[in-house]
Design a protein that fits this description.
By secondary structure, this protein is an alpha/beta fold. It is 38% helix and 15% strand. The protein is built from 5 helices and 5 strands. The protein has a 5-stranded parallel sheet, with helices on both faces.
Length: 165
């Protein structure tokens, strides 16, 4: 019999999360912020960085078998890049059901068309959309960033953990 204490509470389960920028976006601070935030919440994070080609993200998902993929965009082209990306992820058997979320600045027209962008991204296969396109959803008395962060945390916490240490 080993020295494992069967009565000890298991260490908090963690998710294996891959963070990625979209192919046209060279911003890094958003990805570093997300990495640090998710690590602070107790998850393992692989940050692929900015300007990630779809093939690289698909390869990383096959290699790392993440529990969640978080896609972030700041340049306003996240909607179009994100549509291509989710299409590629949903076509593969190994990523067809993988939870994938997208957030940040997804369009270049501000709030105009935001609800349509969110609906289109969800219909295309994203499990959730967070970020600038949610401005106005939270209401005037609510800090949009704080509300987005609360909703993101709630989503991440709702996912079943694949690994219990």
């Amino acid at each position: 019999m080993g020295n494992h204490d069967a009565t000890a509470a298991p260490v908090t389960a963690r998710l294996n999360i891959v963070i990625s920028g979209v192919s046209s976006d060279a911003h890094t601070w958003n990805l570093v912020f997300l990495q640090l935030l998710l690590q602070e919440w107790g998850h393992r994070v692989t940050n692929l960085g900015p300007c990630v080609p779809e093939a690289l993200l698909l390869d990383e998902c096959a290699r790392a078998t993440p529990d969640l993929v978080v896609v972030s965009s700041v340049n306003g082209h996240g909607f179009h890049d994100g549509l291509r990306l989710i299409g590629a992820l949903r076509q593969r058997a190994d990523t067809a059901r993988l939870p994938v979320v997208i957030g940040g600045k997804l369009g270049v027209t501000g709030e105009q068309g935001a609800a349509d962008r969110v609906a289109t991204l969800i219909a295309a296969g994203y499990d959730a959309v967070f970020g600038d396109d949610m401005v106005g959803v939270a209401g005037e008395d609510v800090d949009p960033f704080a509300e987005t962060l609360r909703l993101f945390r709630s989503f991440v916490d709702s996912l079943p953990a694949a690994v219990t240490c």
